[in-house]
Amino acid sequence: MAGSILVRASSDGTATTVQALIHHPMDSGFVKDATGKLIPAHYIQVVEFAHSGSVVLTAFWGGAVSKDPFTKFSFKGGKSGDDLSISWVDNLGNKDSTTAKIS
Fold it and tell me: Which bin fits 93, alpha (ψ -120 to 50), beta or left (φ > 0)?
């Protein structure tokens, strides 16, 4: 699922605000398709955000999170030009990651 992460990060000199959208089906395993057959579970389990090699947020998700989840948070530190890395792993072993510059 390469290229599934869209991210925007900006710093005001004190704190950095991060907004991330991850394109993923996030199927719980309890929903049926048009023929009445259950759609197998397929959801992100772990999302991690790191700044300068230090993890600033780890989220543990499950099937209750909606399709294409959006995350917004702030952390102290970070400055314009710094790298922010984002990665996720789902219950089927799929993974994706990207690095964005803080503006």
Answer: left
